[in-house]
Amino acid sequence: MKYVSILDILETQKAIEKLKDYFPQALAKELNLTRVSAPLFVLTETGLNDNLNGIEEAVTFEISGKQAEIVHSLAKWKRYALKKYKFPLHSGIYTDMNAIRKDEILDAIHSYYVDQWDWEYIITKEERTDMFLENIVRKIYDSLLDTENYIAAEFKKLPKSLPKDIYFITSQELEDMYPSLDPEEREKEICKIHKAVFVKQIGKTLKSGISHGGRSADYDDWELNGDILVWYDELELALELSSMGIRVDKDSLKTQLAIRNEEEKLNQPYHKMVINEELPYTIGGGIGQSRLCMFLLKKIHVGEVQVSVWNDDLNIDVL
Question: Which of 110, 139, 145, 255 is deepest in the core (most CB within 10 A)?
Answer without folding.
Answer: 145
